[in-house]
Amino acid sequence: MPLDEYDKIAHLLRRAGFTAHPDELDAAAARGLQATVEDLLNFERFPDVSPDPEILTALDLPQSDFNRDDFLNKLTRWWLHVMATTPRPLQEKMVLFWHGLFATSVRGLEFWQQIYLQNENFRGNFDPDTGQLLRPALGNPFPVGSFRRMLEYLSKDPAMLYWLDNQFNVKKSSEVGSNENYARELHELFSMGVEDVVAKVPNYTERDIRQASRALTGWRVLQRAAGFTFPRVFSFDSARHDFGPYEHLGKRGGTNADFIFDNIVRHRNPGQKQSAVGRFLGFRLFQFFGYEDPEPEIINALADVFDGAYGEEPFNIRNMLRVIFTPGNLVSEAFYSERAFRARVKSPTEYVVSLVRLLTFNRATGRPDGLSSSPNVRRLVQNGMIQMGQQLFAPPDVSGWREGLAWISTTSILARFNFANDILALQVTQGGIDLTRLLAQAGLQEALPQQRYGEVVDFFARLLWPSPPSADAREALIAYLQAPIPNASSNDVGNLKIRGLIHLMLAAPDFHLS
């Protein structure tokens, strides 16, 4: 059965953001699907997220005073809080997408502060040429601008230069630079993949990688720059650079990496109408927002947009997203199809953010409160994310995390249950969720004493689940609320029942699907 407009908007807000409170969903439905799409895509209309003062302070500490684990805990909590509270949900969803695609881990960095700069780079708020954090950094193409420009900003990113060793790549010979790690992943994982995702033919040769490594020699980070306590300013070292010419993807020429970036985004395999990068990104974007293994015609349609086949600005990510989300074309029909609806397993990040977003939503302000910065919450969140299998800023390897059903195992599901239980058990004074306010704003503060069990179940089902419960599930939840709790005082019963009900609903498959 085709989705109606209300369901399409709910689906859009779950996928292009991190779910929506019923009040937000009703407001979006009043605006209409097309207006909601435009608000998401043109997120610059809304205020950007605020940096965490504690993180900014840590950036200025001498290395001898810098605490790595404390910094990572604070950074993880902050980003999850940002994802839960931002008025720019698609911006943060794309920062998460780039973090997964251009996977970089603090475990391979000498200076962990650089991972925060990369996070802001992916948000469009970092200038690698000056090392400055700016909101926005003019000229930065992330997160939805020109992919051609993104390759340049990625290649200047301090964390990436250290992570894949291009910091140490210097002129060696007419065949190869001294370190080809970054050049390899630039082709294999970051832009086009080993083979064309539609034609299944090789996209490049080993020699293409070696030649690209020559063009990237001398691209490094200054070890010291005035005003900074760690390496964060890009520097082109001409003395260490191989000025070419290079032979790359069937072309000869160039004196710098710009030649490589241009070749990559324009590369088409013989006999293919679409570019290899357009197909690669079309596949990755639709898989991230839509469903796994999209059909070739969907991939090709998105690749055409990337290539500017119909007069659009080429290489533009926002244009590709507009085609996915805007009704009336082949790609969006697939995005809003029954196959895509409630068919994607939430990542641990999406699980935590959607939980926090819905349960901390303040109807008086129309915004979620998000995650407290208390030490209790920081520890709970960091440990929970590790146990659930997605420690932000520390992907398992350069290929990132395995998505979809790979998120689900006996261990990870138990970790999700435990996280939900732990965060619900935190007192408000410790940074926990204010369930009293949640019930009061719904007019349900006296619902349990008045035995209005069905109203309570219906409220939380609409809040937490994408669709109403079956009659049997609803009756089972009502029966849970009605059942006595042995040895519990009358003052504690209501609180325990509400927390238990929420935990049951967070544990149900309905909440784990987006």
Verbal overview:
The chain has 514 residues and is mostly helical. The chain has a domain at 348-512. Helices cover 50% and strands 4% of the residues. The chain is built from 24 helices and eight strands. It has helices spanning 5-15, 22-31, 33-41, 53-59, 68-85, 89-101, 113-123, 147-155, 158-163, 181-188, 206-215, 257-266, 276-289, 296-307, 317-325, 330-335, 348-359, 375-388, 410-425, 435-441, 453-464, 471-482, 490-507, 509-512, and strands at 126-127, 132-133, 219-221, 234-236, 246-248, 251-253, 361-362, 367-368. Strands 1-2 form a two-stranded antiparallel ribbon. The chain has a two-stranded antiparallel sheet with strand order 3-4. Strand 1 and strand 2 form a beta hairpin. The chain is globular, with a radius of gyration of 24 Å. It starts with a helix and ends with a helix.
Shape: globular
Summarize model confidence as the mean pLDDT.
96
What's the tally of helices? 24
* Poorly predicted ranges: none
**How many β-strand stretches?**
8
Biggest β-sheet: count, sense, barrel?
2 strands, antiparallel
Alpha carbon gyration radius: 24 Å
Which key phrases capture this entry?
514 residues; mainly alpha; 24 helices
At a glance:
The chain has helices at residues 5-15, 22-31, 33-41, 53-59, 68-85, 89-101, 113-123, 147-155, 158-163, 181-188, 206-215, 257-266, 276-289, 296-307, 317-325, 330-335, 348-359, 375-388, 410-425, 435-441, 453-464, 471-482, 490-507, 509-512; strands spanning 126-127, 132-133, 219-221, 234-236, 246-248, 251-253, 361-362, 367-368. With 514 residues, it is mainly alpha-helical.
